[in-house]
Amino acid sequence: MKQGLRLVLQGIRHAYGKLSVLEDIDLTVEPGEVTVLVGPSGCGKSTLLGIMGGMLAPTAGKVAREGDIADDCLNALTYVFQDFALLPWRTVAGNITLVLENRLSRSACAARVNEVLALTGLTDFAKAWPRQLSGGMRQRVGISRALAVRPACLLMDEPLSALDAQTRGLLLDEFAALIDRAGTTTVYVTHNLAEAVRLGHQIVVLSRRPGRVRAIRRIDRPLAGRATDDADLRPIEAELWALIRDDAAAAEREIEDGQIRAHS
Fold first, then answer.
1. Is 32 left (phi over 0), alpha (psi -120 to 50) or beta?
2. What tens digit of pLDDT does each residue of 128-147 get?
3. Which of 125, 230, 246, 250 is the most buried (most CB within 10 A)?
4. What dotted CATH number matches 6-263?
């Protein structure tokens, strides 16, 4: 059994006022694995991620955390968003140091920053300013900052969606390698099914709102044994699209109808 944090969701429901967003979610996020949440727009993926991370209290149900948390873990659950959220007046090293200040000694802080810079291939950019970096590089800084606290669980909300297709493709393999080396329990939200099959050990398909677990697909191949555009993963990607397609089309029509009513 892999070591790390396990998240067990039981009977999760959530509503914003009268709008039901999630219903009857029972799900286990296994330690040391990547669980990917996919589904049509508005199905509650990001809401479910927020509930897992404790940022949002569910209307009903509970999230249990099981397993040991290492002594050097500063944040049990840490987020990475699509917005890089770097401070422009701090260097790359300074942005990473931000999450460690007043929590570690100066020497321990410097050692950990150097460690994650090396892990993410950013050592030569430690003194660079965010404005000097490409979008892909800035997101690598965001990943470095998240890993610096040595989280027991990494929660990633479409971290590549703000990047162009070419950069996203290049970073996908890097992300897979980073997650594999870190061995951290990870929950990853995406609309991109190629990302899902590249990174996911467990892929959870949510239905159209209110989101329910429609299917769970496991891929037990190690992340290191996969590649972007891997021919063996394409049938799984097609299977996922077949599950989502009708709900995605209905969700898009709902959005378009809402926009028409808003402007009529």
1. left
2. 999 999 888 888 898 889 88
3. 125
4. 3.40.50.300
